[in-house]
Every structure is written in C-alpha cells, then in structure tokens.
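Subject: design request, 402 residues
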C-alpha cells in the first residue's frame, strides 16, 4: 500500500532519545513527528503501533546473501531472493558483499551487481558494492579458499573497479600485504571506504594503515590477529589496534555465536559511540531451514554445515559464516546488556554514516526517507516500510516494493 500514513502509539527510537510520538509519512518521506494524538488525521491512513517500537529500517553493510542465494550467483533473481530473506527481518538497506574469487569470478559478481542496480527492481536500497578480498592474508583466510587469495595487483583492481562503473564503495583487504599503500591511494582517489579484513598485521602496521586510509575493521575478532608471542615477547595485533584507535570503525557479527556476550560488552564499552556497526555477514543459508549449504557462488562453492545457529566448516573446527538476520543482531546485543536504543543505532544511523550515505537515511526525523520497521519487545518484526510503502506485514503476503 502506498500513500499517506500516521503511525500512532509507538515508542519512536530517535538518535538521541526514545519517546512516544506519532510519525507522519507522505511522499516516501517522514513528514514530521507529533505528540501522541496530535498528528493530522484527514487523508492519512492510520497504522496502530501500541506496544511496539518504531525504528529506522536496519542497514546491513556486510551481507553475502540469504534465502538460498548468494550475491556471487549474479542475476536479478539472486538479489531479489536474498533481499526478501532479510526484509522480513527489518532490513531496508544493504551493501551486497562478494567473497574472494578468481578474477573471472569477481568480474562475474561485479557484473551481477551492476545489472541488479540498473534494473531498479531490487526490493531494498542498494548502498554500493563491497568486495571482501581477494587481497587477504593466507594466515587468516578463514572460510576463504586459499587459491582465491593473492597480493595486491594494480592492474587487476583497477580493472575490477572500472567494470563496476564506480559502484564499488567499500573494499576489505589485509594492509600488511605488499602494495597496500598504492591500493590506499587508489581507494582515496575513487572514494572507496577501506576496511581491514582477514589480516595478520601487527599493532604498528594497523596504526600505519589507519593513517593511510584504512578506517574500518571487518568483523572484529574474526579472521584477524590478536596478541601473539614472538621470541617470548608479546605483540598486539589487529584486534588491539582496533580497540585502541578511538576513531577506527568496527563491525561485529552479533549473532550470539561469533562473539560471546563478554566481548560484545567489551566492544560496546571501549569503542566510542558511532564507531560500532552490527552486520549479519550472512551467507545463502540465512532465512532457510537447512543442514548443509555453501559459501560463494554456484561455480566455486565452499561447503558448509549449518548447526547451532551458525555456518561451520565441514570439519567443524571453525565457523564458515553467519546465517543471522538483522533482528537477531539487535536481540543478541540487547540480551548482552547493551541498551536497546544503542543497539538499534548500531544497525541504522551508525553504519550508514560510516559508509557516507546517512544524509537522508537511518534516522526518524522530518525530511528523511520513510524507511522504517515496527517491532515488539522481543525484537520480532511486525511491519516494514520502505520509501513510504508497506513492504512487509506479519501474517500477510509480501508486497512488491519496487
């Protein structure tokens, strides 16, 4: 349904407070907020939100897929399927992420994003493309295939960027690899956010990388160095540097598996407000009831086992990815003792600002895009609004957003 709405009776989560208010939507934008019962009524359809929270729609800046599809699959169907798997869980904006692959595989994945973005038929906001690799450390490969990991190659990454038509907005890489400084200069020239990922760098290398432009850390604690010993002497790694650098942005997979409550509490306490983003890092099994799946595209799969609420490598010695949805992240943070309002900010305003796209999204205020979700005390999503249109209602058939 499209038109004018008044959301009445909800507890509205704003950047600086949560309070009861009526939210008025018109023309795909938030028209204004009013004291309860004082919003204009004639010509507006009422959406009752008593007992519910009203939040900006969740933004996932690191997601590989869902609903049985991976963004490496390419094609509009894969994007639509993955998007719907997360929209029902409160997501309205996504930064599709490609895993490390061969040059041919990467270009295929890039082409899939370009076509999806041009189609205008993907049922959520596409924030730009995120490449996780292939310039990663073999020592911290995680679920990435070793044959798909390599050193920086200027001719290759320039070719990949040109193929994207300027749509690559974020690139995750290991800054200790040869050629990192030149890569950082390239990223700065084209406005690409640089993120440290799958890195075995030591503390000092991360500090230098921050100065070069690596201002973000991909899935903190996962696929990166921490305190180690060399010749008996301890040395700090990526984790410690990320916590030490006040303005370094970090993202965390708050699925209740990748990080225990103790580390979630530590991150929330140590990092400054605005520097932590919640991400699903979800692979294709997110939103599915399956026991096996795989990471990456159909042409280059990495098998995985799905159990205990997470994807594992077949030998079960390490995680192979997340099957989380955005609402699960908020729920996990809340259960760990992080205030609900701050957890919501970590999934809305903070990640959008980190990616430089928070001018009109991620907050409930007049003039901002009407991308909203309504949920109860248990973070169960009741309704999702995208661009002023109701695209999901609990116990109702999906409606097309585009």
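Subject: RE: design request

Done. Sequence follows.
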């Amino acid at each position: 349904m499209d038109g004018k709405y008044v959301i009445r009776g909800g507890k509205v989560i704003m950047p600086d407070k949560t309070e009861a208010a009526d939210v008025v939507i018109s023309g795909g934008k938030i028209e204004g907020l009013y004291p309860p019962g004082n919003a204009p009524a004639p010509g507006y359809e009422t959406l009752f939100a008593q007992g519910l929270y009203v939040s900006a729609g969740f933004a996932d800046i690191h997601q590989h897929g869902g609903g049985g599809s991976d963004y490496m699959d390419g094609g509009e169907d894969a994007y639509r399927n993955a998007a719907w798997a997360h929209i029902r869980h409160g997501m309205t904006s996504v930064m599709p992420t490609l895993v490390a692959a061969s040059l041919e595989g990467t270009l295929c994945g890039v082409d899939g994003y370009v076509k999806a973005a041009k189609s205008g038929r993907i049922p959520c906001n596409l924030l730009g493309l995120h490449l996780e690799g292939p310039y990663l450390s073999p020592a911290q490969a995680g679920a990435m295939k070793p044959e798909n990991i390599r050193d920086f190659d200027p001719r290759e990454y320039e070719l990949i960027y040109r193929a994207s038509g300027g749509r690559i907005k974020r690139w995750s890489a290991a800054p200790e690899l040869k050629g990192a400084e030149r890569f950082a200069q390239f990223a700065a020239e084209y406005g690409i956010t640089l993120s440290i990922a799958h890195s075995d760098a030591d503390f000092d290398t991360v500090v230098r990388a921050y100065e070069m432009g690596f201002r973000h850390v991909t899935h903190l604690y996962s696929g990166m160095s921490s305190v180690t010993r060399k010749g008996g002497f301890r040395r700090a790694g990526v984790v410690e540097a990320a916590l030490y650098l006040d303005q370094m942005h970090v993202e965390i997979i708050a699925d209740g598996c990748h990080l225990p409550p103790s580390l979630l509490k530590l991150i929330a306490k140590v990092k400054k407000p605005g520097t932590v983003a919640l991400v699903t890092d979800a692979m294709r099994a997110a939103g599915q009831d399956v026991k096996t799946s795989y990471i990456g595209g159909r042409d280059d799969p990495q098998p995985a086992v799905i159990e205990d609420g997470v994807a594992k490598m077949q030998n079960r010695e390490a995680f192979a990815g997340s099957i989380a949805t955005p609402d699960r992240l908020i729920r996990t943070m809340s259960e760990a003792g992080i205030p609900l309002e701050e957890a919501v900010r970590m999934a809305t305003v903070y990640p959008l600002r980190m990616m430089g796209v928070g001018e009109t999204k991620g907050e409930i205020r007049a003039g901002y895009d009407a991308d909203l979700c309504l949920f109860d005390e248990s973070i169960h999503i009741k309704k999702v609004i995208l661009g002023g249109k109701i695209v999901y209602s609990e116990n109702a058939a999906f409606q097309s957003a585009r």
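Confidence is low (pLDDT under 50) at residues 398-402.
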